[in-house]
Design brief:
The complex is a heterodimer of chains A (492) and B (482). Chain A has 492 residues and is mainly alpha-helical. Chain A has 21 helices and two strands. Chain A has helices at 5-23, 26-51, 76-103, 109-128, 132-151, 157-187, 192-198, 206-223, 232-238, 241-266, 269-272, 278-298, 303-323, 327-358, 363-366, 369-372, 374-388, 394-408, 412-438, 453-471, 474-489; strands at 57-60, 71-74. The longest helix of chain B has 33 residues, at 153-185. With 482 residues, chain B is an all-alpha fold. The two termini of chain B are 35 Å apart. Chain B has a two-stranded antiparallel ribbon. Chain B is globular, with a radius of gyration of 21 Å. The chains are: A mainly alpha (492), B mainly alpha (482). The A-B interface holds A 385, 388-392, 397, 399-401, 403-404, 407-408, 415, 419-420, 422-423, 426-427, 430, 434, 437-438, 472-474, 477 and B 60-64, 133-134, 137-138, 141, 148, 151, 153, 155-156, 160, 163-164, 167-168, 171-172, 175-176, 179-180, 182-183.
Chain lengths: 492, 482
């Protein structure tokens, strides 16, 4: 059984997705979604336990030996990403029930769950596979299904947002495909470990450089790294609440994983960062993203948009750590994948409850809710504190590791950018919190029934997780260090 | 008893307060009980620390090899004793004040109060910079709901300045300074003699000292002092304990601790490492006194007086002699007693007569003799006149300035004392000597007993501290080389 875990990780949500279509009833589909995500989370926990000490699991799909067959290959880094993706989905499942019923047409609910599960399958597949082309296939599965679920948002602008994302996403996917094609042309293999062995022989060929360029740009689009971020704000803002939360917590993390995996494992850092000034470029873009994203967030009136712009800034932190090419930097990035997922997930879910209650996510819809919905308000505040990087929240942990990593390299300007971005986040989160607690409630129509316990439990699970990681982060930090060591050691 | 009780007992108290939220009498009783036990526990460490031991507890590895750890050294014990002892008195006062003024959300108030004390105790006991930072921020955040307690537009504005400056300086300067120290030296522990000596250049050390001094925004060095007057929108017990004792003293205490145990006095005195901060502190000292002269709102005048008095302690640290450090440490205690009395009086005046401006106080001393008597005693103590406690700390601060051969700083201390007289003494003088406005009621009109008793207690404290400096000297003996 344990030997089959890697396959189960993808198959569980995939089969559950088909089951949802067969079940058709909203309640049945939700149950199916919940059970599948929980089971998939359990699998990822087992995978993390198996790989956290540095072991690498390899699984031959269908019994075909790599490099000819598809290999699923799990080390500390992707086990951690799998844990984040499936964990976030599992935590959000209880929240989904009421939120989805409120935002999606009754007759389409089962299709919605089926697509969300398909999207998860794609994200988990990208993270687990050791085969470059297989990665592209999963990328398309997750992208296509996410276009559809974004378009199901309650506002008609969701259609335009989904279309924008579709154009940008397709360009990104195609770039990655071209990059993979060029590598295949050079080496005749698609297995990442095999590629890593064969590419050095092709060193300094222009084709290799072009392949790297295509893949970096393609992954950066999926990652929404400045200046390729244009699709993200609207996609997050107009999607159904569950989708905003889920994508914000997982999709960009997986895209960051793709970027790191290709640069560090396939191309190997010493060659990838040599000659193209990739490290400097990534640092500069990350710094601009951190500051510009935060500045734009300050001026948003729609809180979903505000959180989306804040995500663009946070992606800057993730890329910055990866661009430093040091163990400390990579460990900070790996940890931030988790901490940002937990913080943003918490914020989007708390906002989802507010949308469920008031029907809107504009600042004016939030006025005075800190008093009428004290539990939701408090959870939002915890998420906001984590985003700012206040002690005893997960955000502080990453900020610390990232600042240390930057200071070790004596990159003072970048340290300044990290600090400045934190200061800006005080301003934009402060605005929301002041609205929550100090403005008189607006007279709009709100639902009279109390917030469902299931919804609240998801929100608070994430809020408590923020505090728990902030108070005792060592287990996760140890995994992050192992992952960073493996990436720099060049082991695929 | 374990050292861990000191920071975590208030947290347990906060939990009890929440649980007893529906029964106000029980809630306040639990608050008082926690405060009393905490103060007793803190005092019980006195013999251990005076004997020269430094009890230490390591909780766990917090960030890699950086630990969450507590230890108790003389300065920390002094600050912890002040915070916990005055917490008890303030709780008594707050119970009377909050009820007397019919304030809302009293459970939230007492809960946040207890959490803030947890933050202050954590700062006092921090064994390294990281632990200090964690509890420093806890103190900032837990006091925000207290500052904005009234929930109106003025409270929101005040709260915005409060949180903006305190979080801004700590994340923008203090955290980078700590990271820099960690990267440069590989340790963050507070060690006797400091950790920077020989590890960093003079220029870097000067920069670090500036970052620490401004990063600790709670010390209210100009230009980062605005949060303190802004925080005066809070109910008076908050201003009394937090903005005369726990919060502001956590700031100057941090600067003292960093000067003594991170830089080390020998290293800090070399070259010009602490010079820039010394001048900034001297400027703040005088400028804040001058501003205080112009303020008619009583609490605001007291706030600027606090800014000025905090600069005394920062200046004591920046002079970097053992005398000046001793004077600074003593001033933490002496000023705490004096200023908390003044704030208690301001609150009592508000409760009994609903007056907030200095110009409205004419003749009020006849109706409130105890309150204004206490006000007079505390003012004299802050000015530094014998026979009151405040004279000791000023004495040692001036000796420290002499030791450091900074005649100008001597002059700064003296001018400032004169300014203290100018902005503090007119208040009791008006109350006692001026005629009350026509038509005001005659007879004794003091605030409720729960308010008057604490302010008499702390005023008596100012007096006793002058005659009983022995235990304090014994505690601070590591710096007493006279």
């Amino acid at each position: 059984m344990t030997a089959q875990l890697p396959a189960l990780q993808i198959l569980l949500p995939m089969l559950a997705s088909a089951l949802c279509v067969l079940l058709r009833s909203p309640a049945g589909a939700w149950l199916c979604f919940t059970l599948a995500t929980w089971a998939s989370f359990a699998v990822s926990v087992l995978l993390v336990l198996a790989t956290r000490s540095g072991a690498i699991l390899s699984y031959e799909m269908g019994g075909w030996e790599p490099p000819f067959g598809i290999e699923l290959r799990i080390d500390a880094l992707n086990a951690f990403v799998l844990l984040i993706v499936s964990g976030m989905a599992a935590v959000m499942a209880p929240f989904a029930r009421s939120s989805v019923l409120a935002e999606i047409e009754q007759t389409r609910v089962y299709l919605f769950y089926a697509l969300v599960l398909l999207c998860l399958t794609g994200l988990l597949g990208i993270s687990i596979t050791g085969d470059a082309f297989n990665l592209f296939v999963f990328l398309e599965i997750s992208s296509l299904s996410s276009y559809a679920i974004i378009a199901m948002g309650p506002n008609r602008r969701a259609l335009l947002a989904a279309f924008q994302y579709l154009i940008m996403g397709t360009v990104g996917g195609t770039f990655i495909l071209i990059g993979i094609g060029l590598m295949y042309m050079l080496t005749g293999t698609l297995n990442m470990a095999d590629l890593a062995e064969r590419l050095p022989a092709m060193a300094d060929s222009r084709t290799e450089k072009a392949a790297l360029g295509f893949i970096v740009v393609g992954a950066s689009i999926k990652l929404a790294l400045f200046p390729l971020h244009a699709w993200l704000p609207n996609a997050y803002a107009y999607a159904p609440s569950l989708v905003s939360a889920l994508l914000a917590a997982t999709a960009t993390k997986v895209a960051a994983y793709v970027l790191i995996r290709f640069i560090y494992t396939v191309f190997l850092p010493e060659r990838a960062f040599d000659g193209l000034m990739l490290s400097e470029l990534m640092m500069a873009l990350a710094a601009i993203a951190m500051i510009a994203g935060s500045v734009v967030a300050i001026f948003q009136h729609n809180v979903k948009l505000l959180l989306a712009w804040s995500s663009i800034a946070q992606i800057g932190y993730i890329v910055l750590g990866a661009a430093l090419v040091t163990t400390a930097g990579l460990a900070a990035t790996t940890l931030h994948l988790l901490n940002h997922a937990v913080a943003k997930g918490c914020l989007f879910l708390a906002l989802g409850v507010i949308v469920w209650k008031t029907g809107g996510a504009r600042l004016s819809d939030l006025a005075g809710l800190g008093r009428t919905l004290p539990w939701v308000g408090a959870a939002f505040v915890i998420g906001a504190l984590s985003l700012i990087g206040v002690p005893f929240t997960g955000g502080f942990i990453t900020k610390w590791y990232l600042l240390v990593a930057v200071a070790e390299q004596e990159l003072w300007l970048l340290a300044g950018a990290v600090v400045l971005s934190s200061l800006l986040s005080i301003i934009y989160m402060g605005r929301v919190i002041e609205t929550l607690y100090f403005r008189a409630p607006s007279q709009g129509t709100t639902r009279s029934e109390p917030v469902p316990v299931l919804m609240l439990s998801s929100v608070w699970l994430l809020a408590l997780l923020n505090v728990a990681i902030g108070s005792y982060s060592e287990p996760f930090a140890a995994i992050a260090r192992t992952a960073a060591g493996q990436l720099l050691g060049g082991t695929p | 008893m374990s050292l861990l009780w000191l920071p975590f007992l208030p947290l347990a108290g906060a939990l009890l307060v929440v649980m007893a939220g529906r029964l106000p009498n029980l809630r306040e009783a639990l608050s008082l009980l926690t405060a009393a036990v905490l103060a007793a526990l803190t005092f019980s460490w006195y013999p251990v620390v005076t004997a020269g031991e430094t009890p230490t507890v390591v909780l766990f590895d917090f960030l890699g090899s950086a630990q969450l750890a507590f230890s108790l050294e003389p300065l920390g014990l002094l600050f912890a004793s002040v915070a916990s002892g005055l917490w008890f008195v303030t709780t008594l006062y707050a119970a009377g004040y909050m009820r007397g003024n019919n304030e809302a959300h009293q459970t939230r108030f007492f809960t946040c109060f207890a959490i803030a004390i947890c933050g202050a105790m954590g700062v006092a006991l921090a064994d390294n910079l990281l632990t200090l930072f964690l509890f420093y921020e806890l103190l900032t955040l837990s006091t925000y709901p207290l500052v904005t307690h009234k929930g109106n537009a003025a409270a929101r504005r005040g709260g915005r300045i409060y949180l903006g400056i305190l979080l801004g300086t700590s994340i923008g300067l203090l955290l980078p300074a700590i990271v820099l120290t960690w990267v440069l030296t590989g340790t963050m522990r507070f060690e006797p003699g400091g950790i920077l000596d020989g590890q960093v250049s003079q220029g870097m050390a000067t920069l670090l000292y500036l970052m620490f001094a401004f990063g600790v925004g709670k010390a209210a060095l100009m230009p980062f002092h605005k949060w303190l007057p802004a925080a005066m929108v809070a109910p008076t017990p908050v201003s009394a304990l937090l903005h005369a004792v726990a919060v502001v003293k956590a700031g100057v205490f941090s600067i003292l601790k960093i000067t003594v145990y991170i830089f080390g006095l020998d290293f800090a005195a070399q070259g010009d490492i602490t010079r820039p901060v010394m001048w900034v502190a001297a400027f703040t000292l005088i400028a804040a006194s001058l501003i205080a002269l112009t303020r008619d709102n009583l609490k605001e005048r007291l706030a600027y007086s606090t800014v000025s008095q905090l600069a005394y302690i920062t200046l004591g640290a920046a002079l970097a002699t053992s005398m000046s450090v001793m004077g600074g440490a003593m001033h933490i205690l002496m000023h705490a007693f004096g200023k908390i009395t003044l704030f208690f009086c301001a609150g009592a005046i508000y409760t009994a007569a609903h007056k907030t401006l200095v110009s409205e106080l004419d003749g009020l001393g006849r109706a409130m003799p105890f309150t204004f008597g206490a006000f007079l005693i505390a003012s004299l103590s802050i000015i530094g006149l014998p026979p009151l406690g405040g004279s000791w700390s000023k004495w040692y601060l001036m000796l420290g300035a002499l030791d450091a051969e900074q005649a100008i700083m001597m002059a700064v201390f003296m001018i400032s004392s004169l300014l203290n007289i100018a902005y503090l003494l007119p208040i009791p003088a008006r109350a006692f000597l001026f005629k009350p406005p026509a038509g005001s009621p005659i007879g004794l009109r003091e605030a409720p007993l729960a308010s008057v008793v604490p302010l008499c207690l702390t005023a008596t404290g100012c007096f006793c501290l002058f005659f009983l400096p022995g235990p304090l000297m014994a505690l601070l003996s590591p710096w007493n080389d006279s």
